[in-house]
Structures are given as C-alpha cells and as structure tokens.
Amino acid sequence: MLASLFLIGAIWSTPQMSVQAASQTIVEDGIDGMTNAVNRMTGGIITYARWPGPAESHRTLCLVGTPQLTARVAPDLPGNGPRITVRRTTPGAVISNGDCDILFLGRLPIADRQRLIGWVRGRPVLTISDDDPACLYGAMFCLAEKPAGLSFSVNLDSIGRGPLRVDPRVLKIGHADGGTP
Amino acid sequence: MTRRPLVRTSLQKLLSRFHFGVTLFAVALSGLTILLSGITAMRGYADRNIELAAQLGAYGVEPALVFNDAAAAREGLAPLMQIPGIARLRVLDDRSRPLTEWVSPSEDPAPLLTRVFFPEPFAVTIRRNGSAIGTIQVWGDSSTLIDYVRIGLLAGLACLIVTALGTIAMARRFEYELVKPLNEIATVAHDVRLHRRFDKRVQSLGITELDRLGGDINALLDELQGWQGSMESERAMLAHRASHDALTELPNRAAFDEQLAQRIGKAQQQGNRLALLFIDADNFKAANDRFGHAAGDAVLVALSNRIGATLRDGDFAARIGGDEFVVLVDPLDSAMEPSALAERIRASISQPVTLPGNALYRPTASVGVAVFPDDATDAAALLTVADAAMYADKLSNRTRP
Asked: What stretches of B234-364 adopt beta strand conformation (E)?
C-alpha cells in the first residue's frame, strides 16, 4: 500500500517517465495523452496478431458502439505494419458485410454485443473492447484505464476459440494484468 | 679493478641449475600462452553470451516497448537476470529514455577484469516491423571469467609444478648418465695418481665422446705402465749393480757394511750371537800372474760358488775386495764351533778348479773368524778381529807343509 502511494507520488513528480505498477502503459500528459495511449495500445495489439493466410498490407477496423476512452480511434502501429482503415459501423453491417478484420467495441447494448461476439466465434476477427475492464464479455482484448495509466487484459478463451493467432508475449502481458480486475 | 673470486661448482649442480632454468622458462612460457589464449577464447564466449542475452532480452521486452509498459519490460528481462555474468540491464525506448533498468545484486568479483573485458555495454536495437522501437543495453561482469582465470591459474600452477618436477627428474637422470662416466674416469685418474695403480683402466662408456676420452686415457695408462715397468726394472738393475759384484754376483763391500750393521743391531736386540768369517784366497796374485786374468776370474767365481754352497738360509756372503770374501753366520748356534766353520769353508774351497785350457788349480784360503759379542761388539771391531784372525791363519798356512 505504502509502495503504491509512493509510486503514484513518483508519477506526479516525474511526468515524462515514471516507475509503473504492473503492466501499465504510460499515459502521457496533455489533451491527447489518453487518445495516444489507446491508439498505441490498439496498434501494438494489432501488430502482435496474426491472421491466417498471407500477410496483407491493409486491415479494416470496424468501430461499433461508443468508445469510452477516446473519441478518436486510429491505431498507431510501430514500423511499417499493415495500413489500418477505421470505419464506424453498426453490428448489423458488420455481420452482413463480413469484411472487418478488427472489431473495436465501444459501449453497446448487451444484445448487440452478444450477437457480435457470437458471430466472431470461429472467424479471423480480432476483437478489442474498451468497455469491459474485467474482460468478461467475450472480447479478446479489453482496454481499461487504471490509476497508474492505461492497461489491457486478455480473454484467453475468446482467443482460443478463433483462428487468429496472438504472440504469446502479448498474452503474457495481458494475462498478468487481467488477473487483477 | 676487483676480480670476482672463482666460485667452483660441480657439473651436476651446474647442469641441474641450467636444466631447471630452461624448464621453468619453457613451462612458464607455454602456461602463459595457454592462459592467454584461454582468456581470449573465454572472452569470445563471454561476448557471445552477452550478445545472446541481449538478443533474448530484445525478444522479451519487444511487446513491452510496443505497449510502453515498464513492468512488462521488467518481466521480459527476468530470464536475463538468471544468467551469470550480467551486471546491469537497461531498456531504452525509441526516444532513448530508459524504460526499465536492473542492476545485479551480486557484487562484481573483479572490477579490473570487468573494465578490461567489458568496457562498454552491449547494445541491441529492438525493431518491430522494421522500425526501431528501443534499445536494450547489457553490461557484462567478470563473474564468468573470474572462475576460469582462477581455475586456469591454479591448473597452470599445478601443471608448472608437475612439469617442473618431471623435468627435474629427467634432468637428474641425464646428469646421472653424464656425471657417472665422468666420475668413473676421474676415479681411475685419481687411483693412478695417488696409488700408482697403473693397471687400472676406464671401462667402456655409453657416451661416445666420453668413451673416446676414456680410450685415450687407457692408451696413456698403457704407455705409463710400460714406462713404469721399464723404470722399475732399470732401477732394480741399478740397485743390484750398486750392491753386487759384477763378476761373482755376490753382494759387494757396501752391501756387506750395511748388512753387518743391521745384523749386529738385530743380534744385540735379540741377544743372539753371530760369526763373521773373513776369507782370503792364498797366493791368488801368483795364480793370476801365472794363468792369466781369465783364469783368475774363473777362480774367483768358483770360490764364490763354493762359499755360497756352504751357507745356510739367512747366512750372508759378500766379496769385499779382489780376493777377499766375508761370510756372516747369523745366528750362530751355541753348539757351533767357530773354528769348525772356518774349517768347513777351507775344505770347501780347497777342491780343484778346472781353469780355461783344462788346467787344474787347487786354491786354498785363509779364514779368520770373529764372533759377536764374544770378540767385539761393533762392526768395525768385529771386522778388525776377523781380519787379524785371517792374517794369523795365513801366517800359519805358510808354515804349513
């Protein structure tokens, strides 16, 4: 307890770089701090995901519902990863078109969420939610704001059911974090 | 100017010292070479070890860098913390700001070694999809090297000792092989010089050069032995010539004087008696003139033979003048009558002698006897008494028919 207080104090005193609690992405100060952090984390997750079939230079991210952490979802991929097109759409369009590689789930009615999760099962689609801190509702990756910064957790069941492959190093990071809601 | 005093040492010591020096030098040189090459190889391994660790770390911390997650970075580094020989780890992000850092809790066993071998950290750039996202820096320490250096030094020392001992033993053996034959030669030379043992010879030796030396010494000894033998016979001949009469082969006056003095001394000591008989051939000069010198010589030889024939073991006869002989009867038994002795000599002498030219000559002799200690107690007096007795006898002979 004392240690965490100290750590929080340390964050205040050194805004640029700070000692972190477990699996916390550093959120930089400023208006775009959280947006950047979310986009960087989303981009990181995307780079460690492997879709079946040959690598493609282009992936489509379908944004469904209302994102809770940022208004501007635009994944920031390190290096020359695939180019990401962000498309705001509805659950019905997602299912009927079937051309989404990534589903970013914002706040959704429970029925829509369940429908989408059910549809994704068995398909090579990466699901990321920012409205499920405990990661209990079926998205593969869940972003959550924690006092020390932004973190993500992994739902291993969801990843296990789909054909999508995720780098185990990422699973490890997310899993370690996911254990503590 | 001061001259260094000559310090004499033995060949064995000299060889031993020389061998030890050479051996020590060779062993130290090879040991040092092995150690240095070992350290170089070890350094290569240590470098590779650190490089591998850095690569492993780069793989481990890559997602952490992507997510800018210090805790995950630390976790990614965890496997590296188990690797020995790593002093410090640091992960820098793409803007060269440290994300996490770890310093080994164990102390550097040899900071000097570390400074020499790992002056700079090994850095690996971490890339994701072709762009640099950070750097991992790994500092090595000497903990992997120190064991090798320690063991290497110990093993080197052990090798040094073993090799030195082995070489010393071999050097000893060599020295023995060399020094033994030299000692043999020296012993022979010493024996010859000190004990005049010219019959000694150097045995055949296993080393060619020394065997040649031994052969030369043997040849020299052969010559010396020859010289020694001829010298001894020469000396014996000279001694015999000095103390003997050339014609009759009897001892001469000088030998007689010596014998007389000696025997008187001995008789005095032991309380014995001895008789001195003075014999003079009668009319020898006349015979010499009448029959010639060759005949005179023949008479003298015959006289000496006859006198010699009457002697017992231990008695002594000498020719002390032209026709004068002496006999020492020593010891003189109390039962022996001196006049009987004289008579026996006279009788022996008076047998006819065949002269060259077959003429017969009948020599006669006058004999005087003196007895020690009855007649005199010293040599000169004894001789005088005997001489006088002889003259008396000669005079009585002239009156004899």
From this structure: 274-281, 316-319, 324-329, 353-354, 360-361
Which residues of B fall within a CB distance of 8 Å from A48? 63, 66
Q: Which residue of A has its CA nearest to B127?
A: A79
Nearest chain B residue to A174 by CA: give it. B72
Look at residue A31 and tell me if it is in a domain.
yes
Q: Which residue has the tokens 């992507």?
A: B66
Set B93, B141, B282, B323: catalytic member: B323
How many domains, in total, are found in chain A?
1
Distance CA B192, CA B177 (A): 24
Residue B25 β-bridge partners: none
Q: Is residue A3 part of a domain?
A: no
| Structural domain containing residue A83 | 20-178
Chain A residues within an 8 Å CB radius of B91: none
- In this complex, the residue of A41, A169, A176 whose CB is nearest that of residue B62 is A169
List Cα–Cα distances, A126 to A52, A137, A157, A167, in angstroms: 12, 14, 13, 13
Confirm whether A157 is domain-assigned.
yes
Q: Taking the mean position of all CA atoms in its chain, how far away is CA B254?
A: 46
Chain A environment of B97 (Cβ under 8 Å): 16-17
The reported pTM is 0.54
At A1-51, the pLDDT tens digits run: 444 444 444 334 333 332 223 345 666 666 678 888 899 899 999 989 999
Could you give the CA distance from residue B401 to residue B183 in angstroms, rounded to a whole number?
A: 82
Find the closest chain B residue to A40 by CA distance.
B67
Residue A101 counted as domain residue: yes
- Using CA atoms, how far apart are residues A47 and B128, in angstroms rounded to an integer? 8
Pick from A17, A26, A173: CB nearest B63: A173
- Using the CB atoms, write b or e for B167-192: b if 16+ within 10 Å: beeebeeebeebbebbeebeebeeeb
- In tens, the pLDDT along B208-236 reads 888 888 899 899 889 988 998 899 999 99
Please say if B323 is a catalytic residue.
yes
Answer yes or no: are the C-beta atoms of B177 and B162 closer than 8 Å: no
Domains in chain B, start-ordered, CATH in brackets? 11-146 (3.30.450), 253-399 (3.30.70.270)
> What would the pLDDT profile of B254-308 be if each residue is shown by its tens digit?
888 988 898 899 888 888 888 889 998 888 888 888 888 888 888 888 888 888 8
CATH number of the structural domain spanning residue A172:
3.40.50
**Taking 90 as the threshold, does the pLDDT of residue A64 lie above it?**
yes
Question: H or E element: which one contains A62?
Answer: strand A58-64
The secondary structure of B38-67 as a DSSP string is HHHHHHHHHHHHHHHHHHHHHHHHHHHHHT
Closest by Cβ to A23, choosing from B62, B72, B97: B72
